[in-house]
Amino acid sequence: MKVLVIGSGGREHALVWKLAQSAQVQKIYWAPGNAGAAPKTVTVDFAVADFQGLALFAAEHDIELTVVGPEVPLADGIVDHFRRMGLRIFGPTAHAARLESSKIFAKEVMARAGVPTAPYQVFSQEDKALGWLAAQPVDKPWVVKADGLAAGKGVLLCANRAEAEYAVQRILVQREFGAAGDRLLIEERLTGYEVSLIAICSGQVIIPLAPAQDYKRVGDGDVGPNTGGMGVYSPVPHFPKELLDFGVNHIIAPVLREIDFTGAFYAGLMITEQGPQVIEFNVRFGDPETQVVLPRLETDLVELLLTAADGQLAGMTAKWTPRTAVSVVLAAQGYPEKYQRGAVIHGLAQAAALPDIAIFHAGTRRSGDDIITNGGRVLNVTALGDTFAQAIDRAYEAVSAISWEGMIFRRDIAARVRENDPLNLHA
Fold first, then answer.
1. Is the CB of residue 347 less than 8 Å from the CB of residue 400?
2. How far, in Å, are 39, 130, 231, 253, 394 from residue 398 at the CA level?
3. 66-102 burial by CB neighbour count: b if 16+ within 10 A, else e?
4. Do residues 9 and 70 make contact, with C-beta atoms less than 8 angstroms apart?
5. Selecting from 3.40.50.150, 2.170.150.70, 3.90.700.10, 3.90.600.10, what CATH number does the domain 323-421 have?
6. With respect to CATH, is domain 191-321 assigned 3.40.50.150?
7. pLDDT of residue 16
8. Are 351 and 399 in contact (CB under 8 A)?
9. Radius of gyration of the chain (CA)
10. How far apart are alpha carbons 190 and 147 in whole angstroms?
11. CA–CA distances in Å: residue 16 to residues 11, 21, 29, 37, 300
12. Which end of the chain is less packed: N or C, by CB atoms within 10 Å?
């Protein structure tokens, strides 16, 4: 069979890498792709917003499955477009994708479904938001979120009221996130540890994937601004099966009773003293979580996605290697704010030759014989190991072989579970 993967980041590189391992797959078209490579895979020059061009390409090339990576085309209705043309595609409709494209819509669905999440208020006017904050305790922490899609950057963590007031101004007055900030929500800041739970869903059928834990802040020790993710590991020792079952049965399942959903359902959870609560929903594979989850998956990914797209997921299961996976994100200096593109990347072949290493390209392109940086997050260096310590050491050994002018990365990815200690959450 032939498969089309839409997107150009590290998540999509991991997807084509994993799909290529299926004996069912003859060829993968990757649109638009990047400088990363995978067996059976060729890149094709389509913008992710070119629904008509992509759909005609899929029809003309007998594509049997299209997989959508990024959130924007899902929110804009690419699944609806492909389905109208009778093409098989894995992903949610535009209506279901509102679970990610509108944080306020997601909160309203959670309220109807009885899903645990932080209390919140919605505002579209600065004076009303600031007036409400003025009545709140001075030292109380908040999270202020732009309602719409902001490439993972529209969530502002605030330690007190003054920071929350500034966040309101950034979103509603300075328009830092554009139309995504036409409305915002202010919610109570939860405390605990985060876990990313992704599931393959079709109707009421849910196949949970291995949980992962990512690192959102740009700097070591969780300092600096939020990013799309600076590293991740899987499994999560401090997320036992009973919490996984709670996430499936009391968070994902109630939402699927409210929304007709087919695709990869991502629940970002905060594990508090009161139990799991939802931070956010995404409607696609997480990035960079996919880069550690798929290397641990032993089940044929094509079979999972095909049966989900056809509404025949019931009876399927996902099998996992007990090995650990750690991924370190290599980013351009200045990310997630302003950063430079076009630096030549050195050492990729040496790093890829190390044992149990997979290097997923996130923001790269070819320039003659060179591979150069072409984004904020540039590479995901993923390692497998029999223990966390082994996976961590392998990942950072590979990182040490790679360089370009201005490369940055966190040095503490998975340090909290290095000795596989469930209680060592903040080491």
1. no
2. 21, 48, 14, 40, 6
3. bbbbbbbbbbbbbbbbbbeeebebbbbbbebbbbbbb
4. yes
5. 3.90.600.10
6. no
7. 98
8. yes
9. 21
10. 18
11. 9, 9, 9, 9, 13
12. C
pTM: 0.95
Quote the CA–CA distance of 376 and 411 in Å, as a whole number. 18
Dist. CA 317–CA 256, nearest whole Å: 19
The three-state secondary structure class of 4 is: strand
Which contacts of 23-26 are long-range, i.e. CB under 8 A and separated by 24 or more positions? 23/300, 24/300, 24/302, 24/303, 25/1, 25/302, 26/1, 26/2
| Fold match, 2-91 / 119-188 | no
2-91 under CATH 3.40.50.20, yes or no? yes
Q: Which structure tokens are listed for 200? A: 């393959």
Please report which residue ranges of 155-276 form alpha helices under DSSP H: 161-168, 241-247, 253-258
CATH architecture for segment(s) 119-188: 2-Layer Sandwich (3.30)
- State CA 181 to chain mean position distance: 21
| Strand bridging mode 155-158 / 223-226 | unpaired
* Residues 137-173: tens digit of each pLDDT: 999 999 999 999 987 788 999 999 999 999 999 999 9
Distance CA 238, CA 417 (A): 9
Enumerate the domain spans of the chain: 2-91, 119-188, 191-321, 323-421
Residue whose structure tokens are 């997601």: 106
Token reading at 201: 């869903």
Whether residue 130 has pLDDT greater than 60: yes
The partner residues of 121 in beta bridges, in order of sequence, read 186
